[in-house]
Every structure is written in C-alpha cells, then in structure tokens.
Specification:
460 residues; Alpha-Beta Plaits; 5-stranded antiparallel beta sheet; 16 helices; flavoprotein; Oxid_FAD_bind_N; FAD-binding protein
C-alpha cells in the first residue's frame, strides 16, 4: 500500500485550479468514493474531485495528463463489475453533482442531461410531458445516466425498448488531455462518420469522460401497463414459457425470471408467501394498447407450460407490487453474504440450456447461486453467494463462475449483457474476443488515451 502522505503532496495545483471544496483529500472520506458495489478492495487514492461542471472535468483531465495520474470516473457507485474501483495513487472523478436536465424537448422527443442525473428522475421528468425514458435498470432509483452510458446498462424494459445505447443519440465527452468533443446528433437518424457515440457507450470510462448526453425519449403508454405472474415447479418449464411467449408475438415490455433461491431470499426478508413447490417465477408486463389481452395470452401460455399458478394484475397497484418483487432481488441476496454478481447473455432459444448449466454447476461445486434473468432477451444474472468478510470468492466459487462463463460462450452467448467487464471479467475476456479483436481494442484505447490514465486496467 502506498504511503498516503506521499499521495497527497502533489494535488495542490489541482486544488488551486478548482473551486473551494471540489477536491477531497482526507483518506477517511476519499475511501468511501473509491469502490463500487462489488466486494473488490480499492487502493489508496490521491484525491476525489467532486465535479460540478464540464470545466471541472477539463481542469482535472489536464492536470492528470500533465502529472501522469490515473483517473477513475464515478457516478453513483452502483456498478457490479468493478468498473469504478480505484487503484493506488489515482484520482476519483465523481460526476454525481452534475445533475441538470439541460433540456427536455417534447417536440423532438429528446432530452439533454448531465451524467449525474438519476435514471428514474429523467423518466419522471419525461412523463410530465407524456413521454418516458425507456432504459430501466433495476437500480434506476439510484443509478445515474452517466453510469448507465458507461456500462451500456439494460434493465427490465430492454426486451421491448433496448439497452442504453439504443436511446443514446449524442454525447459531449472530455478526452484524456482535456479536449472536448461532441459526437452524434439530435436527430433520430444520422450516419455521418464513424459511430463514436456507440463507441463511448459501454466503454466504462476508458476512452473519455461523458459530461452531457442527448438521449431519445419515447411516448409513454396511454394506459398503465398490465402485469402477470406465474409460478412453476421447474425452472426449465418457466424458461420454455418464455420462448413460447416470444414466439406467440405477445411483445411484452418486461419478461423477468426469478429462481427459487432468489425467491427464498426475498421471502425471508419481505414475507411474500412463497409456496414450497415453487422453483421459479415469471413476471411479464405489457404496456401495449391491448395490454389486458396480451397479459391474458401470456397467462394462458404459462399455464400450458406447466405453471401451477398464473394470474394478471387488475389494478396499477397490483402491477407495482408484482414488479417490486423483482426490484428487491439484489438487496435480498446481499443479505445472504458477499455476492459475486455475473451477467451472461445467451440467445433466447438457449435460455433453458443455460439455466440447466447453472443448476448443474451449483450442484457440482456446492455453491449457492441465486439467478434472475431478463428472460426476454436471454440475459441471466447468476449471483454466487460466499462467506461475508472474505477478501474475494474462494476457489470453488471462481471455478463455478468459470464453468458458467464458458457454458455461455459455448451456447453462442457473451460474458456480459449489461454490467460491463470492469475488473471482474478481465481474466475471461480473450475467450470471447480472441487475440485479433483484443489487439484492435487496445489500439483504439491508445488512440483516445495514449498515456493510459483513463480508468486503467478496466474493460479491455
């Protein structure tokens, strides 16, 4: 561990370049900004910059480039892959105070926002105009737009509306040397030049710091969405029902799968009345104009595929209660111990096979795995529970994770659907990308960040 006194000697120029109170150097305070929601341990950072404007970010990056100091960007710290975990001697650049909705245009169905805007706050602002912001990560009440952009977050509504990249039209980005560029557009279409907006979205802060984003808004549903819930005695039956719902053209706006281990954790916490025979729950929602009919069709399909119970909501309050079960899943699992949270994605047709692989791995390695899935797009979140207080998962947990990653790739899937690579998945990255793609990605990084000061060691 580096000597904290040495780390704090060389930040005087940075403190002088910013307004009073923007730079924190007290180690007891800075430590709280140096990690995310993973178990990963952070290093001793030089300082934390509490940016309130683009100019603060520019000044920080100019200072960092001049001094060769790594910079770790940070939003709300809700990441699950270690992307915002800071190393020794780095600067943490917090964008959480940049919370302005700069513009909201109902006529153009766009919003221009700073990176610290909370996802749910943007959605609420849009709904005042009959619009909505479609990306809907489970952490939407605490996660920020900047963090969502950095990881290309997905969420509960992505089965119909896509992930964050599908709503990102343009960005203002501060590069490693402090230069400011604008990418993309305000229009719904545009193919001028390379798609730099798409490149920055999901780059985990390794290519530049997003200081403003132009995002697409959509018409909010005319009527409240209708939700259905179904319980199954077999998780594979639930997965088969997912495939049947998609094949029937039901077009759900949400299609979520929760396994028994997760349901038990929720029931122990919130007493939801879990039946002893229930091995999995399917939650589906329709926000279409024929939402009630669509929910009825999905209910019938679940019954045809072995559901022991299936019913749809009859009021918006009932719908909210059902979706709340899904949103509390991660907090319930955190109560069980430390969590290694993973994020594999497979073709939808392979969802039953991937679920079978997870169940087999859990038995083989005697690991408690709690799985939820954005089932409509094949994105599974197996969470490996291990003893609280350990610095990292024990070897048998890593071995189980390794098998699940390899199974996802074997089934034509990917290592991460929405959480990002961060630090946690670095060791498996080349299994998916291969050496040529890995070399190309390293080359892209060098173009934007030749001195490797932007979130080094993450993503690629």
């Amino acid at each position: 561990m580096s000597d904290p006194l040495v780390l704090f000697r060389d930040v005087d120029d940075l403190i002088s370049a910013l307004a009073p109170g923007r730079v924190l150097t007290d180690p007891d305070v800075t430590a709280s900004y140096a990690r995310d929601r993973t178990f990963l341990q952070a290093g001793a950072v030089r300082a934390v910059v509490l940016a309130e404007s683009r100019d603060d970010v520019v000044a920080t990056m100019k200072w960092a480039t001049a001094n060769g100091v790594p910079v770790v960007p940070r939003g709300a710290g809700t990441g699950l892959a270690g992307g915002a975990v800071a190393g020794d001697g780095s600067i943490v650049l917090s964008l959480a105070r940049m919370t302005r909705i700069v513009e909201l245009s109902p006529a153009d169905e766009i919003a221009v926002v700073q990176p610290g805007v909370i996802t749910a706050d943007l959605d609420r602002a849009a709904r005042a105009h009959g619009l909505m912001y479609a990306p809907d990560p489970s952490s939407y009440e605490i996660s920020t737009i900047g963090g969502n952009l950095a990881t290309n977050a997905g969420g509960l509504r992505c089965v119909k509306y896509g992930v964050t990249r599908d709503s990102a039209l343009g960005l203002e980005v501060v590069l490693a040397d402090g230069q400011v560029i604008n990418t993309g557009r305000r229009t719904m279409k545009g193919v001028t030049g390379y798609d730099l907006t798409g490149l920055f979205v999901g780059s985990e802060g390794t290519l530049g710091i997003i200081t403003e984003a132009t995002v697409r808004l959509r018409r909010a549903p005319a009527t409240p969405p209708v939700t259905m819930a179904a319980e199954f005695t077999s998780l594979r039956d639930a997965a088969a029902a997912v495939a049947a719902i998609i094949a029937a053209g039901c077009r759900p706006s949400m299609l979520e799968l929760i396994d028994r281990n997760t349901l038990v954790a929720i029931d122990d916490w919130r007493h939801i009345g879990l039946e002893p025979s229930t091995q999995g729950m399917l939650l589906a929602q329709s926000d279409a104009t024929d939402g009630e009919e669509s929910a009825d069709r999905m209910t019938a399909i679940c019954e045809e595929h072995g559901a022991t119970f299936a019913a749809r909501s009859t009021t918006p309050e009932e719908a909210d209660e059902l979706i709340a079960v899904r949103r509390m899943a991660y907090q319930a699992k955190e109560r069980l111990g430390e969590c290694l949270t993973e994020d594999v994605c497979v073709p939808r047709s392979k969802l039953p096979d991937m679920i079978a692989e997870i169940e087999a791995v859990a038995r083989r390695h005697d690991v408690r795995i709690c799985t939820v899935a954005h089932a409509g797009d094949g994105n599974l979140h197996p969470v490996f529970i291990f003893e609280r207080g350990l610095p990292e998962p024990p070897p048998h947990v890593w071995a189980a994770a390794d098998e699940i990653f390899r199974a996802a790739l074997r089934l034509g899937g990917t290592l991460t659907g929405e959480h990002g690579v961060g630090l946690l998945k670095k060791r498996w990255l080349e299994l998916e990308s291969g050496p040529v793609v890995a070399s190309l990605q390293t080359g892209i990084k060098q173009v934007f960040d030749p001195h490797n000061i932007l979130n080094p060691g993450k993503a690629i």
